[in-house]
Amino acid sequence: MDAAGGELQARGGGGGVVTTSHVEEPLFRIFPSREASELSSLSRTGLGKPSRLARKSGLLIPAAGPTCRRDEKSQDVKNIKSLAAQSAVGLVWFEAGWKMALNMQRFLLTLLLLGAHVFVSIYAQETGVSEAWTSRSCKCDCEGGESPTEFSSIASGSSMVRGVDCMPECPYHKPLGFEAGSVNPDQITCSNQDQYTGWFSSWLPSRARLNTQGFGCAWLSKFQDSSQWLQIDLREVMVVSGILTQGRCDADEWITKYSVQYRTDENLNWIYYKDQTGNNRVFYGNSDRSSSVQNLLRPPIVARYIRILPLGWHTRIALRLELLLCMNKCI
After folding, report:
1. In total, how many domains does the chain have?
2. Alpha helices, DSSP H only, in the chain?
3. 261 lies in a domain?
4. Is residue 2 one of the residues assigned to a domain?
5. How many whole angstroms separate alpha carbon 231 and alpha carbon 216?
6. CATH code (residue 246)
7. pLDDT tens-place string over residues 192-250
């Protein structure tokens, strides 16, 4: 076959040269309508595999390249959409985490402020406990020369203490007389007193006197729970400005904390002494058997009846006591 005409020369049997013409067939043959339709359908599928008809005709249908490119573009679009969806989800989670962190920061700040408030309150109470008992605790003085413990009756028959409203705290303090003995035994009572028999008859509430020594040197509660109380009847309305407590003299038994109630008449309800936040004030008591601990009342209590309610104790509820009266001049 030469390059130009594609002719094929061969020698025949007679020695002559026989020239035959050869024409290259096209890539796709033209088939009758039925075969062409079937092959066209096969081509559109893009499978590129020889069918029975194609093998019969000796023709292979090439794979559809453009279809593959369209599949690749479609896959790229899906990948981009997937990345966008993941980014959106990540953004949502980031925003949620940021809001959660902000709320947590606000919560911790509120908790810190609350803790600081509690700490300041406890410190103020402990400062009041450790304050030294002096004859004069401040320089304020009420108008007039009368003692606040002096009172006059008004038309309604109730008692009114003069000079109390003008005192942020008492300028002078005077012991009521537990230690001195001027407080009578029948002025001091306790819960379940009718059950104080036998050994407990030596530890009656009348023994709750500051610095008492010897056997029976304190009030011992027969029951150890927060429903116990010690009550003092002042016989008249007075201004009470402080409380001093001690434990039992001959054993490690004392009150560690307590609250205070008061009322001006036995027919009235008991009132809890409150702190500046409006809660029942907790007074801190003793840590050993012999030391006396003072708690000043600011403002003082105007009442006839005072109750001490133990809230905590060491081993047993044991108490020795003195009350301080508020005076506006030293006598």
Report:
1. 1
2. 33-45, 52-57, 65-130
3. yes
4. no
5. 18
6. 2.60.120.260
7. 999 999 999 999 999 999 999 999 999 999 999 999 999 999 999 999 999 999 999 99
